């Protein structure tokens, strides 16, 4: 019990330190409004990639439908923030509605499609994402069609995104190391053996898929009310690939790797902005080199664990792996 208490305090202290560091850099002007866009992009990408890493790295389901769930959250927040007098309240209502819609869609899609594996599942989830985008494109009375929705109140701040980031990552990590998460991981390692041991395979696959979809919707809502405009072209196949690259780059199954990859790729995009179209070539070459020399990603499946540090500081010799 004391060890758990120390871990909780350690993680809380790290989160507060991160918040204080960003606050200091923004108030002193080191992170100016231009760099703040990169900061927001990195934090939002961590939210997207953490959810996809749960689906891909823990559940072992190759999904290419993340863009569709991001779009659901984005349009939900855009509609409610514009229609409600209180834009901040509209954002939270939009997040809630987006999460519910994403959950329903994920359930409807997950139950039949998660029985598929590998490329077949990837194609199925990609098809669902495209269906969502086409529906958004054609529901002109609600979504304004291909023109999208502009003039969205800019109510999202970096502080709000940071809080959501910490909460979402905590939920995902806690699920991963819970009994349900362990069952999901067992399915990933050997589905036949897990099912033989009584693990309800479909249940845990769908559970991970739903959590990933809901977190994507939250990120989409925050992004829409930060940028101020959403269009169907923002949520194509390429958007799903962008998130997938972060997961693979950092290491499939490693949330620490997700953080590091999102930061490195965000900074790389910032540094290469002056090179125009050439930056995409340099960006692609960097990714190819990483995949050649680190095929498992930067960190593989390695996770940063406070438990080992706490054990060393307090002289504990427990062999049990802890968070």
From TrEMBL:
This is Branched-chain amino acid ABC transporter permease. Keywords: Cell membrane, Membrane, Transmembrane, Transmembrane helix. The keyword Phosphoprotein does not apply. The chain crosses the membrane at residues 12-31, 87-108, 160-178, 206-231, 243-268, 280-302. Its main location: membrane. Coiled coil: none annotated. It is found in: Cell membrane. The keyword Cell membrane applies. Pfam families: BPD_transp_2. InterPro entries: ABC_transp_permease (IPR001851), LivM-like (IPR043428). It is a multi-pass membrane protein. GO terms for cellular component: plasma membrane. One of its GO terms (molecular function) is branched-chain amino acid transmembrane transporter activity.
């Amino acid at each position: 019990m004391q060890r758990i208490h120390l871990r909780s305090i350690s993680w809380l202290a790290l989160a507060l330190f991160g918040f204080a560091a960003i606050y200091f850099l923004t108030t002193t002007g080191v992170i100016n409004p231009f760099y703040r866009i990169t900061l927001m992009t990195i934090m939002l990408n961590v939210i997207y990639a953490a959810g996809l890493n749960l689906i891909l790295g823990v559940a072992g389901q190759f999904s290419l439908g993340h863009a569709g769930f991001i779009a659901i959250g984005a349009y939900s927040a855009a509609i409610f923030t514009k229609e409600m007098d209180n834009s901040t309240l509209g954002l939270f209502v939009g997040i809630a509605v987006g999460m519910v819609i994403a959950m329903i869609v994920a359930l409807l899609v997950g139950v039949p499609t998660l029985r598929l594996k590998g490329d077949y599942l990837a194609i199925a989830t990609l098809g669902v994402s495209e269906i969502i985008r086409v529906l958004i494109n054609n529901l002109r009375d609600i979504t304004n069609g291909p023109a999208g929705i502009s003039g969205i109140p800019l109510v999202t701040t970096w502080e709000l995104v940071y809080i959501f980031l910490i909460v979402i990552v905590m939920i995902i990590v806690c699920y991963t190391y819970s009994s349900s998460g362990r069952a999901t991981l067992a399915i990933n390692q050997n589905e036949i053996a897990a099912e033989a041991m009584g693990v309800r395979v479909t249940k845990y696959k769908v559970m991970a898929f739903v959590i990933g979809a809901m977190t994507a919707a939250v990120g989409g809502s925050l992004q829409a009310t930060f940028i101020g405009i959403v269009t169907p072209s923002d949520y194509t196949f390429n958007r799903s690939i962008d998130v997938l690259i972060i997961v693979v780059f950092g290491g499939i199954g490693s949330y620490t790797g997700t953080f590091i990859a999102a930061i490195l790729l965000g900074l790389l995009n910032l540094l290469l902005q002056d090179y125009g179209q050439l930056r995409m070539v340099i960006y692609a070459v960097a990714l190819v080199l990483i995949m050649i020399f680190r095929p498992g990603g930067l960190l593989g499946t390695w996770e940063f664990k406070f438990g080992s540090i706490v054990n060393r500081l307090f002289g504990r010799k427990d062999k049990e792996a802890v968070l």
